[in-house]
TrEMBL record:
InterPro entries: ATPase_NBD, Carb_kinase_FGGY, Carb_kinase_FGGY_CS, FGGY_C, FGGY_Carb_Kinase, FGGY_N. GO terms for biological process: D-xylose metabolic process. It holds the Pfam family FGGY_N. The keyword Kinase applies. Keywords: Carbohydrate metabolism, Kinase, Transferase, Xylose metabolism. CDD domains: ASKHA_NBD_FGGY_RrXK-like. Residues 257-438 form the Carbohydrate kinase FGGY C-terminal domain. Belongs to the FGGY kinase family. GO terms for molecular function: kinase activity; phosphotransferase activity, alcohol group as acceptor. The keyword Transferase applies. It comes from Micromonospora rhizosphaerae. Residues 6-244 form the Carbohydrate kinase FGGY N-terminal domain. This is Xylulokinase. The lineage of its organism: Bacteria, Bacillati, Actinomycetota, Actinomycetes, Micromonosporales.
Length: 512
């Protein structure tokens, strides 16, 4: 029968990841499927939900193929908050609209603020309306695609979609619901029906449970497709960043999780409800917990973009070049707002800037500037959290960006904060596996995933980075009007017919 183990699978922005973990926390096997999101227009980010299920099936089959483990529970998580609308049978009606990187709902945000009152939304929901809010995205579909919306009966996120496909149960976790502003009442921890019925009168909102609760059990049909045993429990699951925080034990009051991924995410656990117009006040992933959270729209997405522009060298090479560049990237400063920005500026029309560029700058300088831009954004978020009443005592880092020492070191140098790096930084899939294991055994994340490294800030760089941070804040404030005009031009141009690509080859000896 093999070793008793759990499966954890996460649907992320750029890939889906799965782990097979024994009940002592050891990773038996891992697997990944890379994918791309669709960007049909500037500011729109979508994905076909059938890809989520197919990648889950592929990952499960790969993890279980050797037959050396007996699966006793299944964990799921996924990017979010997303909006996948389906009919009553759960058949998707359109591609899912992704989280705050999709900024199409700006008009709906303005209208809902006017209808319900921005202050009242903040009071009842814990967060201001922003492009992160799933409720505003639902309102966009109602406005832009009314015929389709008339057929919509259910709403899913990646984790709840996987749970539905595995168990035939329609449920959502409390944390994900708390990011469905303005549909959720954060004090009562339930849907706020008076507003929900105005925004989506025909949607049947799912029953709410905690991420570690059992959503249901693997059906015979799902077992035949995935290779998972029929009848084993499947947890409700949650949004990937919160599963990442679980994976490294960053759930105590005062803890802050930094997630180094395609986007950067920050989750601070607070003793009582805190609210900030520049952050997201949410229900936590564990019963009784509260969070102040922030998220940058791009971080690893910028480094991946630069890598492609540079001809796809490997990341270790780029990190070596960035380290040679040194603090300050030889006079470069980047704004990381390449897909607008979420917290703390909440500006979907912001755009990226690379300032100070000369012909003498190198790939290493540009790559270093991108890493430093993330650190500067993290510092801005941390200062905003503490200004809102947060008290950060411990920072735990997780995600693919922790694999090389340089990026985490830069963030510690810029913020002046110590970061703890655990043994397993796989992230959300490992957190989902841990929650699944808790359904069959009393397990501890501190035993599963102890701290392995400590990243200390280097005081000799503090003055330089303080100056750079001041310039970072000035650069956005000073360039904001220009960036908004450029964003409007991009939107207008994207709606115009594009010229056909040149089909004739260039003349010999002429470089295109």
């Amino acid at each position: 029968m093999g070793v008793a183990a759990v499966v954890g699978i996460d649907i992320g922005t750029s890939s889906s990841k799965g782990v097979l973990v024994d009940l002592d926390g050891r990773v038996v096997r891992s697997a990944t499927r890379e994918h791309e999101v669709d960007r049909p227009r500037p500011g729109w980010v979508e994905m076909d939900a059938e890809i989520w299920w197919q990648e889950f099936v592929d990952l499960a089959q790969e993890l279980l193929a050797p037959g050396d483990a007996h699966v006793v529970a299944v964990g799921v998580s996924g990017m979010g908050p997303c909006v996948l609308l389906t009919d009553d049978a759960g058949t998707p009606l359109r591609p899912a609209i992704l989280y705050g990187v999709d900024v199409r709902s700006t008009p709906q945000i303005a209208r809902l603020n006017e209808r319900f009152g921005a202050d009242e939304i903040m009071r009842r929901c814990g967060s201001a309306l922003s492009t992160q809010a799933a409720g505003a995205k639902i309102a966009w579909v109602a406005d832009a695609e009314p015929e389709l919306f008339q057929s919509a009966r259910r709403v899913f996120m990646p984790s709840s979609w996987l749970g539905f496909k595995l168990t035939d149960q329609y449920v959502l976790d409390q944390h994900s619901a708390s990011q469905c502003t303005p549909l959720y009442d954060t004090d009562n921890r339930d849907w706020y029906r008076p507003w929900a019925t105005q925004i989506a009168p025909d949607l049947v909102l799912p029953p709410l449970h905690w991420p570690g609760d059992v959503a249901g059990r693997v059906t015979a049909e799902a077992a035949s497709v995935t290779g998972l045993p029929a009848g084993v429990p499947v947890i409700v699951g949650t949004i990937d960043a919160w599963s990442e925080a679980i994976s490294v034990g960053a759930q105590g009051v005062g803890d802050l999780m930094l997630m180094y991924g395609t986007t950067m995410f920050l989750i601070h656990t607070v003793p009582t409800r805190l609210a900030s117009p520049s952050l997201w006040g949410t229900v936590g992933a564990l019963p009784g917990t509260r969070n102040l959270a922030g998220g940058m729209a791009t971080s690893g997405a910028i480094t991946a973009w630069l890598r492609e522009l540079f001809g796809s060298p490997d990341y270790p090479q780029l990190l070596r070049l960035a380290e040679l560049s040194g603090p300050g990237a030889r006079g470069l400063l980047m704004l990381p707002y390449f897909a607008g920005e979420r917290t703390p500026i909440l500006d979907p029309d912001a755009r990226g800037i690379l300032a100070g560029l000369t012909v003498s700058h190198t790939r290493g300088d540009l790559y270093r500037a991108a890493l430093e831009a993330t650190g500067l954004g993290v510092r801005h978020n941390i200062e905003t959290m503490e200004a809102a009443g947060g008290d950060i005592g411990r920072i735990v880092a997780v995600g693919g960006g922790t694999q090389g020492k340089l990026w985490t070191q830069i963030v510690s140098d810029i913020t002046g904060r110590v970061q703890l790096i655990p043994s397993q930084t796989i992230g959300a899939s490992y957190g989902a596996a841990f929650l699944a294991a808790r359904t069959v055994r009393d397990v501890s994340i501190d035993e599963w995933n102890p701290i392995k490294e400590v990243r200390e800030p280097r005081p000799e760089y503090a003055a330089d980075y303080d100056e750079l941070y001041g310039l970072y804040r000035q650069l956005y404030d000073g360039s904001k009007p220009v960036l908004h005009v450029l964003t409007a031009r991009q939107t207008r141009l994207s709606a115009e017919p594009q010229p056909a690509a040149l089909e004739e080859p260039c003349s010999e000896g002429v470089t295109p």
